[in-house]
Amino acid sequence: MRKPLILVGGGGHCKSVIEAAESTGYSILGVLDMPEEVGKEILSTKVIGTDDDIPAYVDKAEFVITVGFIKDPTIRIKLYNKIKEAGGKLATIVASTAYVSKYATLGEGTVVLHQAFVNAGAKIGKNVILNTATNIEHDAEIGDHCHISTGTMVNGECKVGERCFIGSQSVLANCISVGDDIIVSAGSFVRKSISEKGIYSGNPAMIKFKVK
Predict the structure, then answer these.
(1) How far apart are CA 181 and CA 177, in angstroms?
(2) Is the whole model's pTM more than 0.85, yes or no?
(3) For residues 178 and 142, what is the distance between their CA atoms, to the nearest angstrom?
(4) Which of 191, 101, 177, 165 is nearest to 137 (CA)?
């Protein structure tokens, strides 16, 4: 029998994870959020403490990080490390309407939301968000702590580095690579491999802001 979940972080992404987790049969023990949110409810789930309470639930539940990531994954990474240091286990959630090939792999703490598709040979890292209706094609690789946003197409044999955000409705052409710490704005078409840290947008995607 699998353990219930503790969700770490409130907000909109937390609501999406609650729905996805419940759709696949998980029970949720509660949410850990900011001190001022304790006692409130997110959907039907109560905020029962803060992230300082993580050690109290290590033996009672598995954890899912439910803070979102658009521009900066720092908070998600900090919470991931805090859970691991406390001896906690991160659950991997696949929504009831998502499809993950038996020949694909998902890292711990990854969440695959509704209507997402992960094809054969794909490798998804740790603490990744595959948001609603994403398509990760055959043999693609997604690094740790990434967010692949709604409706994005990552085509076959693409490689996305760590800590990347790929915005909604973006398309990555076959066999291209995206380096670490890159943000691709919504609706972009990445035709060629990109490696310089920064924010990319457009068709073809070009760097708009460089990051040191």
Answers:
(1) 12
(2) yes
(3) 9
(4) 101
pLDDT tens track for 164-210? 999 999 999 999 999 999 999 999 999 999 999 999 999 999 999 88
Q: Order of strands across the sheet with 177-178?
A: 105-106, 123-124, 141-142, 159-160, 177-178
Q: Which residues pair with 200 in a beta bridge?
A: 184, 207
Asked if residue 145 lies in contact with residue 125, where contact means CB atoms within 8 angstroms, the answer is yes
What is the pLDDT confidence band of residue 1, given thresholds at 50, 70 and 90? confident
Instruction: Quote the CA–CA distance of 80 and 108 in Å, as a whole number.
Output: 10
| Residue range 121-139: mean pLDDT, rounded | 98
The domains located in the chain, with CATH, are 5-90 (3.40.50.20), 94-201 (2.160.10.10)
